[in-house]
Amino acid sequence: MPEQDISQYLAYLLASAHRRMRIGLAQSIAAEDVTEEHWRILQVLADEQGRTMGDLATLVLLNHPALTKNIDKLVSRGLVLRAADAADSRRVVVYISDLGLETVARLKKSVDAHHDVIEGALGSRKTSQLKKLLENFIDECEATG
């Protein structure tokens, strides 16, 4: 049976693209001393609606232990706050602080600049197509799995 080059597998190509994207994003937000995970958390919380830990974990693509560790770091820096849910005191709701809002505003500029570099390399049409393909792929995976 002939060996197939690993670069022909979609899983490999997605992992490679993800790795490159993470490296570029990490470099673009390094000045704020936050990780990609911190950025995702702050970006979601920036609407000032507050989120339960369960909802936040789903939205920012982190398992509960990883989310808790990241929230602990953000709380210690004063970027987010935890509070008991008014409707169910057993649940914890996370809110962004004023300092967190200031940080996410600065991060947005860096993340948008990173996105612009990628779009510049691909072109706006291909970037739009890639986003649509990835959205469709995610939807299909969720529907079937």
CATH architectural type: Orthogonal Bundle
CATH-defined fold name = Arc Repressor Mutant, subunit A
Distance between the termini: 30 Å
CATH superfamily grouping = Winged helix-like DNA-binding domain superfamily/Winged helix DNA-binding domain
> What would you call the shape?
globular
Oligomer: single chain
Structural classification: mainly alpha
Report the order of strands and helices: HHEHHEEHH
Number of domains as seen in the coordinates: 1
| Count of DSSP strands | 3
Q: State the helicity in percent bands.
A: 55-70%
Strand coverage percent: 5-15%
Pfam family, one: MarR_2
GO molecular function: DNA binding
Keywords: DNA-binding, Transcription, Transcription regulation
Organism: Variovorax ginsengisoli
List keywords for this structure.
DNA-binding MarR family transcriptional regulator, Arc Repressor Mutant, subunit A, mainly alpha, 145 residues, DNA-binding, DNA binding
